[in-house]
Amino acid sequence: MTPFGLHMRKLRQERGVTQKDMAQALRVSSAYLSALEHGRRGKPTWAMIQSILNYFNLIWDEADALVRLADVSDPRVTIDTAGLSPKATMLANRLAEDIAGLDDDRLDAMIGLLDTRR
Asked: pTM score > 0.70 for this model?
């Protein structure tokens, strides 16, 4: 599951909405919505994000937060995070975004941190 999928599921559950009902309203299949929640689909398109924001009537900070989660929720990076925690997916996406800007000292520090887990 991705951070975006986890948050979308939470929004659905808080409002008592089933995947089937939401899928019908968004004009997508229940299978697609399930795959989006579970991280088996790539990052949602901007149009899909807008549809979800409208569906839940999210504005301002809530909308910005969901858009940011979508940005760090692409499960199809070089590192396959499918089946891992939302935090693991966020880390992989942030690493993909920022790795080119990290200097050797920071890379060494991150590698050292990962090495302590072995």
From this structure: no
